[in-house]
Amino acid sequence: IWYTSAETETKFSKSGHQYIKIEDVGSKNGKVALFKFQTAKIDELICFIKEIQIDLRGNRLHCTGGGAHKFSDKFQSELGVETYKCDEMASLQIGANFVLSCIEMPSFTYSRDLEDKVMLHKETNVFPFLLVNIGSGVSVLRAKSPTDFQRVGGTPLGGGTLLGIAKYLIKCETYEELIEISKQGDNKNVDLYFSDFYKGDHTPFEGIDMGILAASFGKVAMGGSQGGEDPQVKGIVEDGDTINGYKKADIAKSLINMIAYNIAQIAYLHAKLDNLNRIYFIGNFIKDYHYTMDRIDFGLNFWSKGEIQARFIGYDGYFGALGTLFENVDISQANTT
């Protein structure tokens, strides 16, 4: 929500929101308050707008994504406001461009040694770069300039795939729950590594690291596990923290690795096609979770032979909304805090 008055600031003071102070954007000064509401709980957003007494009547509510169409009638009847529908991919790119170009320390890498973020200062020119948006599926966008960007690829194997399989196999309902379960897991109990096939230097692949993953869930396919499977048992049998003799935590960690490595490889191949070395990963799959960032960075480091390090952007989750706000606005001279 864009606002300028002290009165509005007071209304937001107890809401625990993030905000960006902006100067010289389209000759305007003010702040952008950032809030998150689940799509499934859209009524909470409507109640919130009513509670803070922001009168939207006669104005347009800038929206993007599927909800812009799904809830337009609801916004009209409940809030008396017309929705202005913005292109989803364009809004995403504009929002990311804004953060990368205007925030002092807009992005970061993930250090496996420090097990933490390493913040990066704003660059004079961030273009060109790849933006990998990991939602239910994955979209790969190439940005050559603030106005020259296009979707160049993607994959249906994304966060939706991960959570869908996890719900079926280990009965977790949310991504947060899956991450929590995985913390106690060891994927080596279900995955096959080259060291499981070959000993010492006896391998047909020259220079291969024996610690490299060969097949996700390979040990499950071969019937090996810590607990072991009963060949007479058909289907999925749940017993506390295990599924058919395999620990749920091990399965969770293997699933996350499988999706993260696949995304990292696809991102690397697109970068190689366009000779790019900046790749930014965003989306709910990352959601500031250290382990998913670690695995994406590990995968990208492996495929690029250490030449490319994964980058992530602050204010992730708000790019679409910011993009609708700054559509057709020159942000090149913006000052932010």
What does this structure look like?
It contains 12 helices and 18 strands. By secondary structure, the chain is an alpha+beta fold. Strands 7-6-17-16-8-9-10 form a 7-stranded mixed sheet, sandwiched between helices. The chain has a 4-stranded antiparallel sheet with strand order 1-3-2-18, with helices on one face. Helix 5 (88-102) crosses helix 12 (319-325). The two termini are 16 Å apart. The relative contact order is 0.16.
Descriptive terms for the model:
four-stranded antiparallel beta sheet; 12 helices; single chain; 337 residues; seven-stranded mixed beta sheet; alpha+beta; globular
- Biggest sheet record: 7 strands, mixed
Question: Radius of gyration, Cα only, in angstroms?
Answer: 23 Å
What's the β-strand tally?
Answer: 18
Characterize the overall form.
globular
Give average pLDDT, whole number: 84
**What structural class is derived from the secondary structure elements?**
alpha+beta
How would you briefly describe this protein structure?
The protein is globular. 30% of the residues are buried.
Which helices and strands occur, and which strands form pairs?
Blueprint: E1 2-3, H1 6-12, E2 18-25, E3 28-34, H2 42-51, E4 60-64, H3 66-70, H4 72-79, E5 82-86, H5 88-102, E6 107-111, E7 116-120, E8 129-134, E9 138-143, E10 149-155, H6 159-170, H7 175-182, E11 192-193, H8 194-197, E12 213-215, H9 218-221, E13 238-239, E14 242-243, E15 246-247, H10 248-273, E16 279-282, H11 290-303, E17 311-313, H12 319-325, E18 335-336
Parallel strand pairs: 4-5, 8-16, 16-17
Antiparallel strand pairs: 1-3, 2-3, 2-18, 6-7, 6-17, 8-9, 9-10, 11-12, 13-14, 14-15
Helix pairs in contact: 5-12, 6-10, 7-10, 10-11
